[in-house]
């Protein structure tokens, strides 16, 4: 059900919500948080709403969309209420703000927040330089951006690095969960040797490639090179050098990766580029600061950039028909086990427990915790 309220007020929107609940016979709400989406009004607004609707099936919430319209128009608030099948497992309030109201989104959001429920702010496209200082950002415990969806992804990532505050995160970081899980799990297999250096290859404008390099630099404390790929999408390959030979994870087609390492059979790995809705659902599972993301941003300063583009293989190495397949579920199970285990040493040398240092996903995710993706 979609109800339009043109030229309205937040008080009238609240009254209509109460009326709809009474009309439907609902006296209580089962909402765990308020998700505020901040974007300019346009065709892409619906993409963000669709992603939020999908995420709400795991995290029932009230979704408030602040869609900023023309600044030169007369001050006006056009609201739209979506419930039922048009709102997933949530209720969606679309606030289209015009004129002076376009820059006063926080004042329109405050009366519509769920009482005693955490607030998460999400900028699916262009985000402010300092999300924590934004009026809506100050209302939120968590602030989600997506540097891959901005006009200049690498520049946007540099801004995120410079202005990081507790509670900030980036969907370019969330897209790395499976990559980090697979790489961390590979170091739990023999031979248990020290990683001496690493190379991460990917598209020039892929912020996820930069973040993966920063994560390896921060966790392994070894030299890491970030190389521009002459072909391929997003992250193309990762190589961890050890005495017996490299651990290599290659994904030439953006869908299926191949993990090779000395003494082990080659493995196919499900590394499909993640949808925004999946990344958003993952980020809504936690409301505390993401310390591994902060460490990774600091690790970016240690990464050495290669100047010459590298042509990567267009086909993965051959894999036996009976070779094991590492699925996304396998990788996430490994990830959860590592997060709950005690931390190992930093460089992965000596014993099996030493490989646990490069934590694949970061800090523990709680159960209560979409665009182009450059992963």
From TrEMBL:
PANTHER family: OXPP CYCLE PROTEIN OPCA-RELATED. Residues 167-297 form the Glucose-6-phosphate dehydrogenase assembly protein OpcA C-terminal domain. Residues 308-375 are annotated as: Disordered. Residues 309-334 have a biased composition (Low complexity). The lineage of its organism: Bacteria, Bacillati, Actinomycetota, Actinomycetes, Pseudonocardiales. Residues 335-345 have a biased composition (Polar residues). This is Glucose-6-phosphate dehydrogenase assembly protein OpcA. It comes from Actinokineospora terrae. It holds the Pfam family OpcA_G6PD_assem. Residues 52-161 form the Glucose-6-phosphate dehydrogenase assembly protein OpcA N-terminal domain.
């Amino acid at each position: 059900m979609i109800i339009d309220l043109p030229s309205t007020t937040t008080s009238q929107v609240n009254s209509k919500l109460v009326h709809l609940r009474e009309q439907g016979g609902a006296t209580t709400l089962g909402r765990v948080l308020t998700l505020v989406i901040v974007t300019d009004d346009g065709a892409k607004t619906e993409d963000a709403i669709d992603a939020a609707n999908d995420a709400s099936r795991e995290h029932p919430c009230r979704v408030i969309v602040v869609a900023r319209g023309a600044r030169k128009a007369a001050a006006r608030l056009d609201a739209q209420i979506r419930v039922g099948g048009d709102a997933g497992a949530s209720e969606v309030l679309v606030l289209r703000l015009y004129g002076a109201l376009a820059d006063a989104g926080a004042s329109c959001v405050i009366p519509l927040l769920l009482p005693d429920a955490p607030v998460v702010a999400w900028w699916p496209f262009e985000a402010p330089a300092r999300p924590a200082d934004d009026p809506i950002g100050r209302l939120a415990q968590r602030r989600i951006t997506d540097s891959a969806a901005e006009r200049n992804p690498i520049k946007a990532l540099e801004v995120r690095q410079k202005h990081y505050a507790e509670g900030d995160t980036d969907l370019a970081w969330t897209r790395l969960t499976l990559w980090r899980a697979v790489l961390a799990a590979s170091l739990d297999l023999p031979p248990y040797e020290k990683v001496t250096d690493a190379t991460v290859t990917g598209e020039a404008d892929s912020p996820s490639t930069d973040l993966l390099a920063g994560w390896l630099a921060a966790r392994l404390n070894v030299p890491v090179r970030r190389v521009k790929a002459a072909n391929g999408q997003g992250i193309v390959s990762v190589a961890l050098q050890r005495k017996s030979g490299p651990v290599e994870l290659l994904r030439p087609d953006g869908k299926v990766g191949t993990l090779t390492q000395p003494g082990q059979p080659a493995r196919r790995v499900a590394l499909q580029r993640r949808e925004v809705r999946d990344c958003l659902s993952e980020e809504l599972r936690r409301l505390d600061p993401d310390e591994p993301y902060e460490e990774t941003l600091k690790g970016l300063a240690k990464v050495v950039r290669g100047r010459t583009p590298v042509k990567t293989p267009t086909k993965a190495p051959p894999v036996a028909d009976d070779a094991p397949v590492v699925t996304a579920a396998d990788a996430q199970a490994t990830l959860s086990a590592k997060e709950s285990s005690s931390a190992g040493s930093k460089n992965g040398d000596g014993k099996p427990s030493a490989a646990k240092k490069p934590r694949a996903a970061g800090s523990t995710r709680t159960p209560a915790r979409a665009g182009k993706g450059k992963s």
